Amino acid sequence: MILEKAKSIQSYILEHRRHFHAHPELGYKEFQTAERVAAELSALGLEPRTGVAVTGVVADMVKGEGPTIALRADMDALPIQEQTSLPFQSTVPNISHACGHDAHTAMLLGAAQLLHQEDFQGTIRFIFQPAEENNYDDPDRYSGGERMVKEQVMDGVDYAVALHQVPMMPSGVMSVQEGPIMAAADIFTIEIHGKASHGGLSPEMGVDAIVIAAQVISQLQTIVTRNISPTEAAVVSIGTINGGFAPNVVADKVVLEGTSRALSQATMQVLRDRISAIAKQTAEMYGGTAIYDITQHYDVTENHPEAVKVGAEVAVGLLGSAERLIRIPPTMGAEDFSFMAQQVPSVFGLLGSMIAPEVSHSLHHPAMTLNEEVLPLGTAWLAETALALMKK
């Protein structure tokens, strides 16, 4: 059984997970991580391509004619100071694997070890992608997943599979369900321009960017309540507001920063259109101008029914009980596997990795830790799902 084989290489998986954890790297800077990944793939006789989407690694395991199944892991860490006191905690100040991408990378390396021993007809494409968390300084504002799609990494792929560990889900359970499971998400700015004047002496000579900003913020709150169906999920939030430079001067500039999210691409486009229209038309109404700019974006992460059917069956077999395959509501968090899932039928599984409720923290928390005992399960699920999809 493939789970037993995964358990037999648990020390291999843990060695790599702990190494990556101790040496985290931010997006598009995963040079050491990529070098180690490429070395492990080369040791299996594969010919990894490095420098894909800046620091990504891609390798094909080919065993005869057949479909191509992509297995993907993300490699980047977060700009967060770790607070776990683990013996292998981050050695890099203010950078840590607080989302568990170290575990994802290690599990995919483990899956490569397992699949190397299996007989199949087709190709397994191992994708180790950079920059899932952000687009950083990418000139096109692409995160790693989108940049990999733009560089044709998904060409010829029939199905794609990925996995995320979840420290707030009990260990020994998984969630593999069809439809949207994570939201489309934008980070945006609205730059409002008015005209400065003396706020006490001659306010009529100015165009108050703060007044415009206040109206824009208020009007943005009507989008979800009046432009989106009550049966659809959507969010528009303004997180920061910066403007003005003196208490007695009419402000000539205000910058708003916010996020918008939706569980369908169509709803997301409505949000974008309405934010743009409200910002620009409100500013014009008061004699100013507004620039709406999306600085970061993710598509909806959507699981395909056919791929989910296979992934769920594999999960039940590995878990030993259908009761351990749980359903959870879609989350308004975002994931850039979405760009790959928009290209080909895909399945994105969630792996419970809770240590204990009293010591568990959510993703991106400085003290986030995970139960390493579940890593062979995730490894086995990746490998077995790829094999099962190949038989389709």
Automatic annotation (TrEMBL):
UniProtKB keywords: Hydrolase
Positions of the Peptidase M20 dimerisation domain: 188-284
InterPro entries referenced in this protein's UniProt entry, alphabetically: Amidohydrolase, Bact_exopeptidase_dim_dom, Peptidase_M20, Peptidase_M20_dimer
Presence of the UniProt keyword Protease in the record: no
SUPFAM superfamilies for the chain: Bacterial exopeptidase dimerisation domain, Zn-dependent exopeptidases
Keyword Hydrolase: yes
NCBIfam families reported for this sequence: amidohydrolases
The protein, known as: Amidohydrolase
UniProt organism field: Persicobacter psychrovividus
